[in-house]
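Subject: Interface between my chains keeps coming out wrong

I've been trying for a while to get a sensible model of this assembly. When I model each chain on its own everything looks fine, but I need the whole thing in one frame so I can look at the contacts. Pasting all components below, labels as-is. Any help appreciated, I'm running out of ideas.
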Amino acid sequence: MRAPPMTTALVSTSTSTSTPTAHRLSELDVLESEAIHIIREVVAEFERPVLLFSGGKDSVVVLHLAAKAFWPGKIPFSLLHVDTGHNFPEVLEFRDKTVAAHGVRLTVAKVEDYIQDGRLVERADGTRNPLQTMPLLDAIAAGRHDAVFGGARRDEDKARAKERILSLRDEFGQWDPRNQRPELWNLYNGRHTVGQHVRAFPISNWTELNVWRYIERENIELPPLYYAHDREVYRRDNMWRAVSPVSPPHADETVELRTVRYRTVGDMSCTGAVDSQAASVADVVREVGVSTITERGATRADDRISEAAMEDRKKEGYF
Amino acid sequence: MTLTIDTRNLDAAAAVSAPEGTLFRFATAGSVDDGKSTLVGRLLHDSKAILADQLEAVTRTSTERGFGGESGGIDFALLTDGLRAEREQGITIDVAYRYFATPARSFILADCPGHVQYTRNMVTGATTADAVIMLIDARKGVLEQTRRHLSVVALLRVPHVIIAVNKIDLLDYSEAAYREVEASVRLVTAELGIAEVLVIPVSALVGDNVVDRSERTPWYDGPSLLELLETLTVIDDLDERGQATEAFRLPVQLVLRPQGAVVVAPELADSYRDYRAYAGQVASGSIKVGDSVSVEPGGGTSTVTGIDFAGVALDEAFAPQSIALRLADDLDIARGAVIAAVDTLPPITRSLEADLFWLDPRPLAPGARVLLKFGTTVVQALISAVTGRLDLTTLAGEPATSLAVNDIGQASIRLSRDLPIERYTQNRRSGAFLVIHPQDGATLAAGIVTAPGEPTRAGDGSGAGSDVSP
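Reply #2:
Try treating it as a single job with all components included. I did that and got this:
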């Protein structure tokens, strides 16, 4: 992997941020400065922030923004990943490489451990996404984290569209959508009582296209499966699902080799690939720009359970 | 006019904004049944911002509920009502944010519900908005709710106010009926001192003047709603040469002092050993290397020796960039300090008069001890008196001794320490604050400074320093 972003990627932004002629920022520059402001506010006002880091594109972008926020110092918080045990191996490998490059500490909470000792039970449909909530809340409590950064965006889902940038959670991690603090100007109120914590979403206002354009502009490395590659897949729920030990095809499902890429990267048992020839970041930016389907609609089986699938998971403490 | 979910109709190019385009934030508001959700849905649909799977889900639910009529069987409200309770009860509970783009620019839409806690939602949406679209039912004209929303918009000085006179189709596109509503709206906005108001006749249900100009309103020769949104200026207070006009303000978020633990290349590490910079988002104005600055608290002055943006050295920075500023002198600067262009800081004071938008169900009584958050400063404060309340029916001030939820009132406030206090009319960022409950941390009110109190010392100079915030 290339050197940590501090010595290379950051220099590439000089074209868009230095020697401005007018005092006007582009859309990406406005979103970037907004996110850095949020990250710095949380670090200044909380004792023990942590960043949820899966190696997926959104959390990679938040990590990159955190590195920029504190340059030339190190990122002043650690990372947390809830590993379902069904993650793509190449994403885990990327996760560890990235963590090492940034010189930050990563804690991994494993759903598998909870299933092994009986605290959680495998679901009939095999998906482990909803099972992440308990290990997540335990890890937040064990780390005594009072603020938890996430890469969630409001354009992902109707329930997320209503969530605040700083979102207060009770000691059960629950989100109460009907009782949210008003968020005024850029004045974030992080006050909380013992047992409560705050979820902070610095890229709330970014769209999928903003994220990809930023990845392109900043030359940010991602796990390879975000780009077109050949993979053995089969059709289920109108998605291409990867053949893997945790997501085997049924007898009536035909396996074929296709050129695909992933728009979101999560649990192998519920994340689908899309047909794509987009092999470079520029290709992906073009593809996302003209896509007629949302990223979750295209790739997440768990959000198709009901209209309120995300809302229900969030109320229980999901990110 | 019927809608179709045939994705071939989605014009691919329309979904893509220019990469270096501007970002425009606007809020929508209106009374119950004015058709706001329908307008938002129409705007998103006709600007091709609704993707096929979202439209499919909405169409499926609309059909299940037997929704029919002229919109082609689609209940657009389902697009923005994101919570289960909202869909079940057919109401909108909370501000929802939507994102869409046209080739001209990208938009962030804050959809503010009209009936439940209208002040709270309206204030939330309006504080960050470049424009507010206020919906009025053409058949009903200006309602009390319209006046209330407009008074919030006026007090918060939202830069652009658009009035969409909706359901014009139900009045057979009558110009006379529209002109009557337009005249009564302009009467209210004039009374409130809103300088520029743009009024558009629309039908959200059938799409007149929402994205495309309608042939059914030949007597209206202005732009469509979307055309307007694409061309209005963004909040930025720039002059004609594109230069920031407000005085420079940087509320310090934290001090960057890595003390050797740096991420720069090893051969450069030595030169960063004593690195010290003040990180924050420029709240207003611009700053150049070599400029003189004043710092509060403390009243010290210094010169800018460097402006860093994550490893890139800038010659100049401006709002709303998140930067780190290096100064020539080693001043005592911590979170909560404000770095400002020299000779621009207002007098330092321990009291102020403010308008409060009371947002908490618990009423405000005089003598309440609260916290105020100005920029990055949190200060203890005492509400010494409630001096009045806006009668939202007559828009006149009336005497009051307490404020209840959704009230807009005036209060005198004492601070536990000296702060440079600016009027909101002079600086929208520096003159705004939160009122926070000292125990449970709830945001009780949005506040804007109407007048700073008696100066305890002049704004810029070498007066005695006050205590430094943590």
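Reply #3:
Confirming on my end. The helical segments of chain B are 36-46, 52-64, 77-80, 84-89, 118-127, 144-155, 175-192, 225-231.
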